[in-house]
Specification:
Number of helices: 27
Low-confidence stretches: none
Number of strands: 2
Strand order of the largest sheet: 1-2
Largest sheet: 2 strands, antiparallel
Radius of gyration: 24 Å
Length: about 525
């Protein structure tokens, strides 16, 4: 048993172990008081911190609100089932590609402005600041829409449990409206279980760089972009300032989490006891909130498709004057192939590591595996880069793959842990009683039964690797270009047609992974009813 536990822990140690000394090397320069004085006197960082706080807090609140309203109004029901079916398609759109498409949609020369121009007879784009505004409101909007899909996916998994559905039926049978049942019974139980996903959403909003470059303010940028620039500066003084600012991000995360915890404690203490009064359903005005949520996702992809084939498209025309496949024919496919092999290797290495961890690893340490999801990415990336520099591995393929594993592994564990815990343990008991060893029982019984969630987990890991921006920049040392890094680089002022092509390639990879996973699950389980 000890040997199997050590075997399960070995991949995790190889992924997380080198990070610890790297964090020490990366954050030690921030312990100098002169570094903090230089940070305090820097004219950019107060406005950068303000933009970061506005975008991260506002996007988290909006994302939670959207997910809560949709769940309250539509679970259970046909709209909720439709939403569940469409979520994989929406989630497969990476953050950077979504930001590019939203930029094409809401920019002063974007499609929505062109639509308004048809009625107002504009001949030039309006003088509006709809993207890259100083308060990062457009960034907050993009994050809120994108992260609401993630929270709905988490809610769908939680609401799929039988205990929750039985409580909903019981509340409705007692005459309480759907809203009352959620407010009095379900939300008080579900909110504590959503702490980790909400923290992950907030931490991502604090440290997002790719979306902030595309939609966020320019001068000064958000604090995450500022930290990224300082950490990649050749001057050691700026690198130390970047380390100090990354610790500010950690402090902001901790402060906001403690504040949210305090507000939750106060809300629970002042929560009134149910008085038994039945009230009519409310919130009917929000019943169609899911429609603009769908349409935004589809419109983003449509804008990318139009720009990728547009030959000439001048304001205020709604449609391109001519279309051509020239941008696709002249596209640089090197980032695509680099992204493909990198995502395949990263997800392929993580799947066996996840399986042995969930089978024989110490499950009480799962919270440690989730730390990369709930901690701002910049300090972790800086720690990875410091370790690679000391090991003389920076800029190598091995370093690039290892840098992605830190984020791919937690997401794959989070995806597979639910089906793994729901597996009927009596099947394994029967296999062991028939003389199967633990390894043979897993290979012959348990893992084949979990084939469908394993394929879905593999697709999730593939998509996570495709979307990685900061690890690719730091660990790759500029020698490896993926569709994500190429799209962000082109967003700074490159050709919109080339940018749309790279963004679509970034979307195509996760969509293909989810599609192949679904097709493989159907094909392998077609004659096996329990695997469908």
């Amino acid at each position: 048993m000890l040997a199997r536990t050590l075997l399960a822990a070995l991949p995790v140690l190889l992924i997380f172990g080198p990070l610890l000394p790297g964090l020490y090397w990366a954050l030690t320069p921030a312990l100098d008081t002169s570094v903090w004085q230089a940070l305090w006197l820097d004219a950019q960082w107060p406005q950068a911190l303000r933009a970061t706080l506005i975008s991260s807090v506002l996007s988290t609140v909006l994302a939670c609100g959207i997910a809560a309203v949709l769940a309250t109004l539509h679970y259970p029901g046909p709209v909720w089932l439709t939403l569940q079916r469409r979520l994989p398609l929406l989630l497969s759109v990476p953050h950077a590609a979504f930001a590019v498409g939203l930029f094409f949609l809401i920019a002063p020369s974007g499609w929505l402005a062109r639509l308004v121009a048809q009625g107002l007879h504009w001949t030039s784009p309006p003088d509006w600041v709809t993207v890259q505004d100083p308060y990062a409101l457009s960034l907050a909007l993009a994050l809120a829409i994108k992260e609401s899909w993630f929270l709905l996916w988490v809610l769908a998994a939680v609401l799929g449990e039988q205990a929750v559905s039985r409580q909903m039926v019981m509340g409705r049978s007692l005459g309480y409206s759907r809203t009352q049942t959620w407010a009095l019974i379900l939300w008080p139980q579900l909110l504590p279980r959503l702490v980790w996903p909400v923290m992950a959403v907030f931490a991502y909003g604090l440290s997002v760089v790719d979306m902030a470059i595309i939609l966020g303010p320019g001068t000064p940028p958000t604090l995450a972009v500022l930290v990224w620039r300082w950490l990649t500066d050749p001057d050691p003084a700026f690198q130390a300032r970047g380390s100090a600012a990354s610790m500010v991000l950690l402090a902001v995360l901790l402060g906001c989490v403690l504040a949210a915890r305090g507000l939750w404690w106060l809300a629970m203490r002042q929560r009134p006891y149910p008085n038994g009064q039945r009230k009519p359903a409310t919130g009917l005005a929000w019943r169609h909130l899911h429609t603009p949520l769908y349409l935004t996702g589809y419109a983003v992809v449509a804008m990318l498709l139009l720009w990728s084939v547009a030959q000439a498209w001048f304001f205020p025309a709604l449609w391109p004057d001519a279309v051509s496949l020239a941008s696709w024919q002249q596209a640089d496919w090197t980032p695509f192939w680099t992204t493909l092999w990198l995502a395949l290797v990263a997800s392929g290495l993580c799947l066996p590591a996840v399986l042995v961890w969930l089978e024989w690893g110490p499950q009480r340490l799962n919270a440690l595996l989730y730390l990369p999801l709930i901690v701002p990415a910049l300090p972790l990336v800086a720690g990875q880069y410091a370790s690679l520099l000391h090991l003389h591995l920076d800029g190598t393929a091995v370093a690039l793959v290892w840098s992605h594993l830190l984020w791919v592994l937690p997401y794959m564990v989070l995806t597979l842990i639910g089906p793994y815990r729901a597996f009927d343990g009596r099947l394994m008991t029967s296999a062991r009683a028939l003389g199967y060893s633990p390894w043979h029982a897993c290979l012959s019984v348990k893992w084949p039964c979990l084939l469908r969630p394993m394929l879905a987990t593999l697709a999730v890991g593939f998509a996570v690797s495709v979307a990685q921006y900061l690890p690719t920049l730091f660990a790759g040392g500029g020698r490896f270009v993926t569709v994500t890094t190429e799209a962000v680089a082109l967003s700074a002022g490159g050709n919109r047609r080339v940018l749309a092509v790279q963004a679509l390639l970034q979307i195509a990879l996760p969509m293909a992974a989810f599609g192949l996973a679904a097709a493989a699950a159907y094909g392998l389980g077609r004659h096996r009813k329990g695997l469908r």
